[in-house]
What does this fold into?
Amino acid sequence: MPTVSFDNVSKKFGRVVALERVSFDVKDGEYVCVLGPTGSGKTTLLKLMAGLLQPDAGAIYFDGKSVNKVAAQGRNAVYVPQQYALFPHLTVLQNVAFGPLARGKSPSIALETASKALDLVRLSWRAQALPNELSGGMQQRVALARGLASGAGLLLLDEPLGALDARLRLDLRHKLRDLVKQSGFTAVHVTHDQDEAMSVGDQIMVLRNGGIQDYGLPRRTYRRPANIFVANMIGGASFLEGMVDTTVGETALISLRGGLTVQASSKNLTLTAPVILALRKECIRISRNHLEMENVFKGEIRDVRFLGNSREYLIRIPNGDVIASRQFAEDGRDEFEMGEEVLVGFLEGDAMVFEYPARGLRQELEIA
Amino acid sequence: MTRGFYSAAIVFFILIVITPAVAGIVAQLISLPSLALSADVASRMREAVAWSFVIGLVVSSLDVLAGIPLAWLIVRTQGNWTKIVDSLADIPFVVPTVALGFSILEFWGPSGGVAQLFGASNAVPPGAILIMLLHFAFSFPVIVRVMVGEFLNYRETYEVAARTLGASSFTAVRTVTMPILRPAILAAFLLALARSLSETGATIVVAGAFENGTVFISNARSSNLTSAVVIASLIMIVSSLVVFALIKVFTPRVRVAPLRVWPNLERKLSKSPVVSARNAISLIVFFVFVLLPCLFIALPAVEAVAAGTAREAIAGAGPWKAFWSSMFLSYVVAVLATIVNIVSGLPVAILIARNKFGRKLARIIDALVDLPIIVPSLALGVSLSFFWRNMGALPEFWVIVLAHTTITYSYFVRTMAASIQGIAPELEDAATTLGAMPLRVFRKVTLPLTKYSLLSGAILVFTRSVDETGATSAVAVTLKTAPILLVSWIRGTVPVTPAERALGVGFLVATSFLALVMLRLIAIRQPARKVA
It folds into this structure.
């Protein structure tokens, strides 16, 4: 199964820049999730890999060989569009057998491959149905089977679960990953759902305005995101503006806008530089009487959201900022009410510090 | 209110389209003292009708084979020149059919252009082959027009999916695009077939001693064999209806044969030299077998322009005064017939496409819609004149307009019904739940999405109306449309020189062509931004 490399690939549509000087590598058999808001260049990226679009500049390599001049049908990369594009006039089995037939397999081998792929997605019993006789989830599985049976090594999934209802999405995403992994495919899966990306990707790529913001292991992109856009896109956080007061070893004292000083561990911070402090919801603790952490101050509960196994609180802290906290319903944990005065705190090591973005905080967080 | 609207359209359809098309034949059938035919007339008739179907099926198949690649080239090739080809493909529509017959005869025939250029042995004598060449030329544009519309509306995602599954572009088109567009191909095929089965005026010109069904009817009429005319007309109508019904009922049911792919061969066929060769061949076929033969009769017009005849013509001297008033009449009739067609035909097209009022009614109307184009045009003329003579009060001008509506009705409804079927009903449902009234849904959703097909339908109607000769001459008593006048010039009943004759045809072709180009510019260039 192929490795894929992009080397400074750019693509424009008229004056709109879809991708600009994008470089990255996908390893053999890896499952990469590409995450990004609408218009960030996700689909363009897939179509370039599939050979449905040609780059304006830069080169694309499969297994180290440039495929810039290889047409879509010669690439061994199968593109699964968002709406699946199952051929309406062919049966499920014929749809799945299309790839092997198109690649020159004899009809008997093609049908055998197709049957196996249908077994894999447990749809053999619908082999003779026409696509429009199937439910959305089944259609998705047929599209996957068609990709798996195609004999390609690279599977390009464009929002593969986007057309399904929420419950089904949760069920299917792991099945999808397992099937792709079992078959040994290299896969690129485009989505705008960060949970989906985190839970199925070996690697996550975050795109924005045609450029890669971050690319790495899900754990790493969550714990140490490259910038505040990525922090916001993956997991989300409360963002506070401040300035570096003093640094002692790896600890910095940061005075927040509105006059509140907090401690954060961070390297390479310049004194008096404006910074953004990002705090994940689950790192913020709340208590009525006692918290043992580096940073503790008073707060007022402004909103409560019930989420089943957890509660989310919006808390106003003394400098006027509002931060979000998620508290899991463990035994003995207190539950808080609107308007209540509480203690809020977070560990020094849990605060993520970023340089203040040149374009300003709000612009940097904008999704569209 | 919507219901009333559809009902009115159905009543119009039955009263103005179906009844006039067959009333005369049926009335004559009833009034005939005996239906007996002599044995030799009967066998002549059987043979002639059989030939009609052989010619029709062969020609329509060839049309599909040659027309689809050209439509594909027009839609999928980059460059503005394909738009010119697209417009040129309409020219055979705007040559009056009888003039077309003479043009084909003068191009391929024994004393014609081909004979002079390549020797008399290469000429095609009047008969079955020449009829095929004629029918090919006038039904080819029908296929191109319908298929261009379909290709433009087709979503390419299926093809894209097929290509990334490893299919060459030829394979993708053959196994995916064409099967998905099969209903449209079928519709185009049937339109071409109907045209071939019913055309009379031009066919007589090139038939010589040979007889197909329509020529037989015409000959029988000249020899006053009324019962033969009636019987042959009925046989043609009924057997055409049966053939149409069979083709329509059975084609969609044939399950796709086991999917076969020949990757190496088809990959070679997808390579650019092969594609260029294919494009070249379809262009050559179009120019040599369609465009040139159709325009051949108008070629001396160039000389006429040089000799100054054109100036006389434009000044309206001599025979030209009558010519210009005929032209005016033709265009007014064509515009009115097109408008009447759109207004009365759209509801019927929607009704067929969306099974309004139930599946059964939709199927019945669907089958009846083809009636006016499968009735042999001479029989149609007989029927129309019988019907309108008995209606009495209507002025002749309106009789011509309504007769033209009857003649052209199928083209518009067929094209639109096929196109509306191609639009997901969900789009219309979405608009409805957004609070749009049916008319608004149609104007803002259905219409913009079927715009090109609406235009194609209108072009078919307009041009058919401008060039129709046979049936019009049966209903027109004092008024002369341009084709009727030109036929009298070509036949020599009005003395004109060949240059004048060519110029007359040339003017009609040029003005209708200009009208088409303008219609196209208005319909396509207009940005579809206005929402209110």
Notes: Residues 39-76 of chain B form the longest helix (38 residues). Chain B has 28 helices and no strands. Confidence is low (pLDDT under 50) at residues 526-532 of chain B. The domain at 1-25+300-532 of chain B is CATH 1.10.3720.10 (MetI-like fold).
